[in-house]
Every structure is written in structure tokens, then in C-alpha cells.
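Thread title: Can someone regenerate the structure for this chain?

I was given the following input by a collaborator and told the matching C-alpha cells would be attached. They weren't. Posting the sequence so someone can regenerate them.
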Amino acid sequence: MPKSNLELLQGTLDLLILKTLALGPNHGWGLSQRILQISDAVFQVNQGSLYPALHRLEHKGWVKSYWGASEANRQAKFYELSAAGRRQLAQELKQWEQFSLAVGKIIDASA
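Best answer:
Regenerated them for you:
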């Protein structure tokens, strides 16, 4: 599949991370691969964006981390959604739905 030139809207990465972690804990590399897989290779999140976002979400208390062994049996920092992160995810999903409906209305009106 060809690489996409789509860029994430500001704030969308946090939503994607929270939603992906709602599926279960994961380490950074696994998280980026899961986003790539679920998005059918549309969203390729690089480390320079992923790790600052994970640290920001952890600082806000929405994500917790712990050290564990990866599938390759290497030490890796795993991230999981906290209770506050679940509440934040619910809010962000509601906002995303409102946003996407509004964009859809504008696109439909312009057609």
C-alpha cells in the first residue's frame, strides 16, 4: 500500500493513542504499529511525535506506564489507559463525533 501524505490534525494523535490503548496496554513501537494496522497504513506515527505525546498524556494522568518484556523478550516501557484516560477518551470521542458531523455538513453543502 502506498504511503499516505495525510497529516494528523492537531490533537488527533492524542485521541488515536487513547483509543488504541483502550484496546489494551502496549509499548511505543507496538502502539505505532497498531495505529498503522488499524488505519490501513494511512497513519504512520513516527517516534518523534509518538513519545512526546505519550509523555504528555502520562503527565496529564490519562496514561500510566510500567516496564515489561516485549514480544521479542526485550525490556520495554508499556503504556495503559488510566481511569482518568478512559473519561478523557469518552469526552474526546464525543467532540470528534461533533467535529466530523459538522465537517460532513459543510462538505455536503458544498457539493
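The radius of gyration is 15 Å.
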